[in-house]
Amino acid sequence: MRYQISGKQIDIGDALQTHVKTELTQTIEKYSQRPTDAVIVFSRNGHEYVCEATVHLSTGLTATARAAANEIYAALDNCIEKMDKQLRRHKRRLRDHHRDRAEPVEFAGAPMYVLAAYEDGEDAEPDTLQPMIIAEMETKIPSLSVGEAVMQMELSNAPVLVFRNEKHGGVNVVHRRDDGNVGWIDPVNAV
Questions:
Q1: What's the CA gap between 149 and 60, in Å, rounded?
Q2: Are strands 182-185 and 171-176 parallel, antiparallel or unpaired?
Q3: Strands, E, within the chain: which ranges?
Q4: CATH code at 54?
Q5: Could you read off the pLDDT of 103-118 as tens digits, one per residue?
Q6: Domain range holding 147?
């Protein structure tokens, strides 16, 4: 497994890197046999250290965790504890509901744009109706079942996930609703 351990304006020493690799490897090996890579970023937020970890699994799913504490090792331990909980839930769901997936998740490329917000206030009209694009990136759209899409959204702590439905090949969206439930948008089945 590849590790990318970095710090935002923090010097990450060899001892911390070794500790990250040891602890994260032990946690991941309990639940997943084939992780591909992990990205761990340390930063500071006021007096607290923040640890953000992202683990990419060979099935195409991504698990993320974020934790903060007054000490950098405590932030790491809290983050790994959250990752452990997510991976345990993921494995339980796979065992209970998704035994039939024999092939890895397929991904399709798609352009992604970040649009600039208007700064003149809400009532002001823009000069043109065309939005100003401030960033253009490539993103991946996985082919998943609805259950797997909900699981991926929860694992990555994302508010929304766009995916290609394996059942009919159409683009679908699952999202976290304000009431705590998960919404599913399926344009193919629209009346």
A1: 11
A2: antiparallel
A3: 2-7, 35-45, 48-57, 62-69, 106-115, 133-144, 160-165, 171-176, 182-185
A4: 3.30.160.100
A5: 666 666 666 656 566 5
A6: 106-189
- Which residue has 């009919």 as its token pair? 168
Considering 69, 97, 125, which residue would you say is the last residue of a domain? 97
Interval 36-84: pLDDT, tens: 888 999 999 889 999 999 888 777 778 889 999 999 999 999 999 998 8
Place of tokens 């345990």: 88
pTM metric for this prediction: 0.57
Separation of alpha carbons 105 and 19, rounded Å: 31
**pLDDT the model gives residue 72:** 92
Is the Cβ–Cβ distance between 107 and 138 less than 8 Å?
no
